[in-house]
């Protein structure tokens, strides 16, 4: 490299001036002129670009082989074009920015395998992928990033040390001390991050998850992460694995998020911080730790739910599922490195909860208590007074935990207690929330509370069948469970009526989607069944109950005919109602005769 030091010094001065404008002075730009410093930096870089262009033209005109000197000029020009591209994109001039980025790639493409070329090439490719992504050209963006990844891997295999722009202006005595090594790693980490986004957009979630994990793993490896952001991103990625029932991977990521948060808590408050800064940091930590806690709770809930669904499968399906699970585990073990944070010791955190399906009540009980512990942490931050919606979701999670544990409980009386506890959480929430402002949540609570009391009723009815004659106390409990379930289901139905305050109008709202219509159908079915299950010794009461049963079953039958898409999965219920609509008029006539 034979470029005179005074020339390099002049270039360095311009580059540093532009960099200072963007990195430091831009933060003081007024709202009325938000890009002032960026425009100044652009002008400085354009001046530098002209000088470098002129120098290259001069060298090419001499027809002499510039060798290393020409390569350095091209590299510096590539860095300038990259930074001009960034500035134009930031100032919302994407087309102009794209031209500069493409110019950088044209200059550097033949030299991207060299120490002087890899960093401007990777930087321009990353920036250009953002431009393509903003135009929804996700496939093109992904292809560009994959090319950048291949270039990075080939360069690393060569054993060369990348040169950053500061290394070009002030060449280090020891090439190994060049600043480019760290910058290259950061650029590849960004490449993985952008690639994850593009894979997500083109419908390849597994590749997206792999790139997300690689990004997080590299952030840990090179200590280039913000602890809070790392924990949130890792916990979020765990939810993808959870959806795929890859509980081992999900648990591993949540454990990593928890450990990083715990380490951060020990060092986040510095002696030089003001009281306000300390309060702000503590508030942010509590908030985000509560979010990680909610992800842990979702992990446990999903594990119990999946275990339940697996046990409900018939034997043939069960054998097939077990074989599939076994195959998946073998694949997962073979690719352990694809999802593990090998630099973190997570064994203690992971050992707190299983990643295997629950087979018995004892298995489920451990997960149930684990879920409740984390929900307690989340509830400690999300208060009803300040975060009503989030608080409501946490209470609903408590209720869901009782639903799942009740499935594994073998004692009917304990099942009933658990279902009543499930309903109580939701009823307390309904007392707290105004349906005018929280209608969606109230609808969910009404429906699920109705389902919980209906489950209690089923337990009571099964118990009654085992006896020859029920006691008055048992009859009372049966009717109480049925009436509570009816009350909640009717509140749910009323919220969807076109005229909810009219006693005679059963007309549904016209703007309901298919899922809402399906839930309305189920609610009508449940109400009809519940009225039929009520026990009364008085003919007049029996007549009223049978008429109500007939009314809801009729509306169910009519609505199924009107909404064929919504009623498709309800063959069993439709068959039951068809039979009941034939039977009920006969029963009503029989009761009327007794009244006469």
List the helices and strands and how they pair.
Elements: H1 5-23, H2 36-61, H3 67-90, H4 94-108, H5 118-134, H6 138-158, H7 165-169, H8 180-201, H9 205-221, H10 227-243, H11 247-267, H12 275-312, H13 315-334, H14 347-350, H15 361-381, H16 388-408, H17 412-432, H18 439-465, H19 472-494, H20 514-533, H21 539-562, H22 564-567, H23 571-595
Helix pairs in contact: 1-2, 2-3, 3-4, 3-5, 4-5, 5-6, 5-8, 6-8, 8-9, 9-10, 10-11, 10-12, 11-12, 12-15, 12-16, 15-16, 16-17, 17-18, 18-19, 19-20, 20-21, 21-23
Kindly list the characteristics that best describe this protein.
single chain, 596 residues, mainly alpha, 23 helices, elongated
Question: What does this entry show, briefly?
Answer:
This protein has 596 residues and is mainly alpha-helical. It has 23 helices and no strands. It has helices at residues 5-23, 36-61, 67-90, 94-108, 118-134, 138-158, 165-169, 180-201, 205-221, 227-243, 247-267, 275-312, 315-334, 347-350, 361-381, 388-408, 412-432, 439-465, 472-494, 514-533, 539-562, 564-567, 571-595.
């Amino acid at each position: 490299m034979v470029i005179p030091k005074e020339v390099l010094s002049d270039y360095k001065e311009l580059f540093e001036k532009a960099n200072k404008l963007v990195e430091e002075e831009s933060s003081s730009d007024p709202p009325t002129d938000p890009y002032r410093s960026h425009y100044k930096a652009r002008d400085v870089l354009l001046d530098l670009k002209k000088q470098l262009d002129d120098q290259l033209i001069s060298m090419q005109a001499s027809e002499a082989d510039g060798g290393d000197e020409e390569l350095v000029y091209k590299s510096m020009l590539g860095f300038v074009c990259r930074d001009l591209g960034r500035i134009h994109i930031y100032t919302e001039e994407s087309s102009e920015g794209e031209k500069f980025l493409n110019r950088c790639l044209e200059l550097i493409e033949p030299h991207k395998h060299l120490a002087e070329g890899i960093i401007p090439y990777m930087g321009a490719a990353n920036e250009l992928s953002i431009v393509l992504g903003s135009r929804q050209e996700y496939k093109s963006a992904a292809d560009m990033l994959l090319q950048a990844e291949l270039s990075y891997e080939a360069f690393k295999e060569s054993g060369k040390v990348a040169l950053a722009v500061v290394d070009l202006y002030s060449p280090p005595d020891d090439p190994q001390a060049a600043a480019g090594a760290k910058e290259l790693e950061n650029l590849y980490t960004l490449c993985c991050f952008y690639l994850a986004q593009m894979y997500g957009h083109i419908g390849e979630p597994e590749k997206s998850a792999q790139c997300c994990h690689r990004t997080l793993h590299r952030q840990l490896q090179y200590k280039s992460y913000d602890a809070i952001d790392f924990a949130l991103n890792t916990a979020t990625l765990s939810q993808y694995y959870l959806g795929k029932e890859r509980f081992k991977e999900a648990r591993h990521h949540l454990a990593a998020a928890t450990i990083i948060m715990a380490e951060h808590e020990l060092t986040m408050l510095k002696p030089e911080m003001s009281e306000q800064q300390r309060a702000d940091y503590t508030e942010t930590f509590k908030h985000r730790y509560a979010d990680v806690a909610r992800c842990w709770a979702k992990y446990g809930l999903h594990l119990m739910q999946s275990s339940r669904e697996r046990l409900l499968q018939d034997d043939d399906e069960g054998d097939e599922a077990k074989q599939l699970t076994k195959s998946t585990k073998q694949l997962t073990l073979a690719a352990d490195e694809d999802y593990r944070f090998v630099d973190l010791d997570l064994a203690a955190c992971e050992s707190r909860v299983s990643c295997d399906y629950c087979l018995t009540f004892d298995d489920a009980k451990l997960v149930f208590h684990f879920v409740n512990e984390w929900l307690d942490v989340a509830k400690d931050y999300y208060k009803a007074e300040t975060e009503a919606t989030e608080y409501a979701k946490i209470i609903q999670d408590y209720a869901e935990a009782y639903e799942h544990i009740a499935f594994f409980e073998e004692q009917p009386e304990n099942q009933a207690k658990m279902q009543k506890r499930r309903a109580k959480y939701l009823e307390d929430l309904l007392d707290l929330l105004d349906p005018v402002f929280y209608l969606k949540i109230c609808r969910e609570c009404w429906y699920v509370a109705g389902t919980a009391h209906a489950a209690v009723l089923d337990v009571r009815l099964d118990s009654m069948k085992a006896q020859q004659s029920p006691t008055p106390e048992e009859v009372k409990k049966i009717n109480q469970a049925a009436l509570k379930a009816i009350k909640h289901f009717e509140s749910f139905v009323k919220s969807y009526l076109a005229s909810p305050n009219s006693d005679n109008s059963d007309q549904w709202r016209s703007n309901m989607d298919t899922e809402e219509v399906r839930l309305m159908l189920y609610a009508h079915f449940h109400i009809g069944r519940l009225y039929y299950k009520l026990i009364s010794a008085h003919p007049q009461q029996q007549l009223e109950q049978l008429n109500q049963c007939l009314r809801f079953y009729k509306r169910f039958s009519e609505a199924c005919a009107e909404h064929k898409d919504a009623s498709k999965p309800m063959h069993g219920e439709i068959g039951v109602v068809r039979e009941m609509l034939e039977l009920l008029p006969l029963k009503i006539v029989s009761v009327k005769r007794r009244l006469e």
